[in-house]
Amino acid sequence: MHIYARRIAAGLAAILAVLAASDAAARALDVYLEGDPSGPAPAPVSGGLLLIGGGDHSAEAMRWFIAKAGHGHIVILRASQHGEASTEFYRELGGVRSAETFVTHSRSASRDPHLLDALRKADGVFIAGGDQARYVRRWRGTPIAAALDAHVRAGKPLAGTSAGLAVLGEYLYGAMDGQSLTASQALADPYGKGTTIETGFLHLDLLKGVITDSHFTQRERLGRLFAFIAKAQASRPADAPPLIGLGIDEGVALAVEPDGTGRVYPSTPGTGVWAVYGAGIGRAAAPGALVATRIHVTIAGPQSVVHLPSGAVGNPIAEKDYSANGGAIAPLP
Questions:
Q1: In terms of C-beta density within 10 A (0-12 exposed, 13-18 middle, 19 or more buried), how is residue 201 classed?
Q2: For the chain, which ranges sit under pLDDT 70?
Q3: Segments forming the whole domain that contains residue 86
């Protein structure tokens, strides 16, 4: 009897495992809704980009985004975690008719009719943090990416934080190998396989020729943004203009109007947006560590105006120059 019982238990366990695997495979999408997604936005909708460096969101910047969305319907996209952002928008920030989070678990979710209909009707779209490699693998070249491009072209606001910020530029660091490069690693081998620079994801006019990075000062990422620009520029035609890097500190948001003028919203004093100019980095891919004699950087604060896609900064809080050599960077006088 004990032998038969063990065989039955083993058989049941195998069946349950198959059912669980089938359920996981079938569950390409999770949906979390707060509020009523029907009806028009109560106020006019206008375009804009909200670029957030991760961490706590500036309440003032989030209110800017909600106003841009006409206090209507917000769609949140992510590829992991759950629907906390829907609760944040609807119950904590408030002032929206609905907030609906879609968590994609596979590339097949990009064809889901409900998701695509929600994106088409959304007054504002917010791309949450997480793992940008999942976004690239699951959304690039799919109806989701096409819907995001169409959303911006229609004059509606788009926001991204952390990984959601990383995927907005014409060029992006995809972290496709599952690692997150440190500045020293990137500077030591900017043209290596670990510096996984991607393109062809979104096509936003205000971020053409731009590559972004988040958690910037807090994780000491200036050197790795130099390396990202170096590798991306090496893949461009010889007559292409230099790229611009935007490093955004934690808790900082850059709110960009349709005309390309952006205002910095910091949640902590002393933080801001770093504009890195690729002209000092060049485009020749040489083996080994990055070598550059003078890379210009401008830092924007609350009283500054950032102009995109040029990267020009009016009334900056600081301007600095750096050299790169031997796998490290150093400030210049």
A1: buried
A2: 1-26
A3: 30-166
